[in-house]
Specification:
Blueprint: E1 8-11, H1 30-41, E2 50-52, H2 59-62, H3 68-76, H4 96-116, E3 121-124, H5 145-155, E4 161-165, H6 172-178, E5 184-191, E6 215-220, H7 226-244, E7 248-252, H8 270-287, E8 292-295, H9 306-318, H10 330-340, H11 375-387
Parallel strand pairs: 1-2, 1-3, 3-8, 4-5, 4-7, 5-6, 7-8
Helix pairs in contact: 1-9, 4-5, 7-8, 7-11, 8-9
Pathway: Ketone degradation; acetoin degradation
InterPro entries: AcuC, HDACs, His_deacetylse_dom, His_deacetylse_dom_sf, Ureohydrolase_dom_sf
Pfam family, one: Hist_deacetyl
Length: about 400
């Protein structure tokens, strides 16, 4: 990793945690508070990573992606199931529009930071709300901040934007917004929709007319761990990004792929997630001149996983990654135990020092051969066969 990427920022304001569906909802805003506290305690946020204030997105900005009728319904906090409001996933709450618009504004600001050159990398960990559709809120996502941010980049003159989504759930909302636009390459790695919400994201889904190959999906079997995930990631993402040559890389780092997450069935460790973040950082420098906008997303093990995973993400954004063997500060652990009554992890790693491999989790590279008996390999190869030819890539080459 380049240790001196240039200025880097995190867009944050404590009031972003007003995006709060209530005490019984899985998406607890305390996960954001704990992340920022841990990252600050470890001096990731501070001299390495400048904190930038988060503006509120205007209705006009939100309307570049979302229907005015949805915006008005959210503003009124209408119980409107047709628009995905007041459902189990998206219960309405006072100030919903302001809270959701603030998240959108934070991601647009991260995009502005990077596109203007003020920051080489910029993050909004409260963002990544990738399920919201133009006319409907969905899956804990009121507005789709990522899609609005990408639209903003296009409106500023960006000609090629790549979006890589590593949440356990398919990035269906961002895909839907841009599936007919060849200026945007969307790549989603996720647990197969056969088993997990939103039930979409098959390998054969490659985009709309005139934009075939610019929608890419890698559905993975339940139980996929670090080795399988990284094998799939490296078999698909780097070749496509190199062929596409984006001007900006936008990513969504939902950490619900972790083995402890209660809402998905993947088996990654924090170490595997960290390896993914470092790979995305390096790809941003290789293919996009370093321009990288990183967002959060899912993640519902709010104390044991999310703060560690996203602290590693913020460290990657800063250009100075943290050693996985770094101890979690005692004061942070005590705070978690007092606040939530839960035991807190002691290391930034899930892997014992005795078995950790240099360079991160081990995986078998795609170049070592395809195994047709492997469900994961069959899925990855189906994606390569479906999407690679549109980019002049040979899906059968190793």
């Amino acid at each position: 990793m380049d240790q001196s990427p240039g200025p880097a920022s995190v867009v944050f304001d404590p009031s972003l945690t007003d995006y709060d569906f209530g005490p019984d909802h899985p998406m607890a805003p305390v996960r954001v508070d704990l992340t920022m506290l841990l990252a600050t305690s470890l001096e990731v946020v501070g001299p390495r990573l400048v904190t930038v204030g988060a503006p509120m997105a205007s209705d006009e900005t939100i309307a570049t992606v979302h229907d005015e009728q949805l915006i008005e319904a959210v503003r009124r906090a209408d119980p409107d199931e047709q628009r995905g409001l007041d459902t189990d996933d998206n219960p309405v709450f006072p100030g919903m529009h302001q809270a959701a618009a603030h998240v959108v504004g934070a991601t647009v600001e991260a995009c502005r930071q990077v596109w203007s050159g003020v920051s080489v990398h910029s993050a909004n960990i409260t963002g990544g709300l990738h399920h919201a559709m133009p006319g409907r809120s969905s899956g804990f996502c009121v507005y789709n901040d990522v899609a609005v941010g990408i639209r903003w980049l296009l409106d500023q003159g960006a000609e090629r934007v790549a979006y890589v989504d590593v949440d356990a759930h398919h990035g269906d909302g961002v895909e839907a917004v841009f599936r007919d636009d060849p200026r945007v390459l969307t790549v989603s790695l996720h647990e197969s929709g056969q088993f997990l919400f939103p039930g979409t994201g098959a390998s054969a889904d490659v985009g709309g007319p005139g934009a075939e190959g610019y929608t890419v999906n890698v559905p993975l079997p339940p139980g996929t761990g670090d080795a399988g995930w990284l094998r799939a990631f490296h078999a698909v993402v780097p070749p496509l990004l190199r062929a596409f040559e984006p001007q900006v890389l936008v990513t969504q780092q939902g950490c619900d792929s972790h083995r402890a997450d209660p809402l998905a069935d993947l088996e990654l460790t924090v170490d595997g997630q960290r390896a993914t973040y470092l790979a995305l950082h390096d790809l941003a420098h290789e293919v996009a001149g370093g321009r990288w906008v990183a967002t959060g997303g899912g993640g519902y093990a709010v104390a044991s996983v999310v703060p560690r995973a996203w602290t590693h993400l913020l460290a990657a954004v800063s250009g100075v990654p943290l050693d996985p063997g770094t101890p979690v500060p005692a004061a942070w652990r005590e705070h978690v135990e007092r606040l939530l009554g839960l035991p807190a992890p002691t290391l930034l790693s899930d892997v014992d020092d005795a078995v950790r491999r240099p360079g991160g989790p081990a995986f078998r590279a795609w170049e070592e051969g395809y195994d047709p008996a492997s469900w994961l390999d069959r899925s990855v190869q189906a994606t390569r066969v479906a999407a690679f030819p549109y980019h002049g890539l040979d899906p059968l080459s190793w």
